[in-house]
# Entry
Amino acid sequence: MHPMQTIAVRAARAAGQTIIRAFAELDKVEVTVKGVNDYVTNVDIEAEAAITYQIRKSYPDHTIICEESGENKGENKDYLWIIDPLDGTNNFVRGIPHFAVSIALQYKGKTEVAVIYDPIRDELFSAVRGKGAKFNDFRMRVSKRNDLKDTILATGFPFKAKQHTETYMKIFSSLFTQCADLRRAGSPALDLAYVAAGRVDGFFEIGLKPWDIAAGDLIVREAGGTVTDFTGNHGYMTSGNIIAGAPKTTSAIVKTARPLLSEALKR
# Structure
């Protein structure tokens, strides 16, 4: 195993233990409102601290960007860890057992290592650039369905960017009439992991953050999938507007979405 992947896995599992312990006593979880439809709990903070501790033990000079605490600069600017300690906080707070830890490591701007860990199911999705993607210890690949009518797609509503609701619903409606079914589960990290594992055939969402998608992006690509923004280009890490899936599925989603985009989403 890649040495930095080993640390990422160790950190993800440590955070997962923190999350599972708290999930058993949800009445003791402290919830704070960060913004509109945006929550943080003491568990997010504790899981983030567990991840940072594991990384800092081995790589004290690396830079770390976390969803909750922001950028923790290190002397070595070439290595950047991008962390979401609890992707799916709203699910967690309400006792819905669908959330994950997401950790990505970039070297000079390229993602080299990615880990997404579902502590409820003890499922680990991981990838190293150029080495393929794995589910636990098994190689995984995106689905082989080529026709949109046979696909199940995952999505997330733009609940933090409701100005895009009208455009999103047009895209949703058009895709819904073409595919077999749609899923909205509340954790974009797991949506991307499920694309890589072939559990769903494609995924699209508007307005995500780098820590939501950095790990899933590499895992999908190493599983043989493609990732684009809504215009079919590669600005998704900046815009947060992402489409992922098996190559033909991604192309079909882009083909459907592109004519429906508002001017704001064409940028």
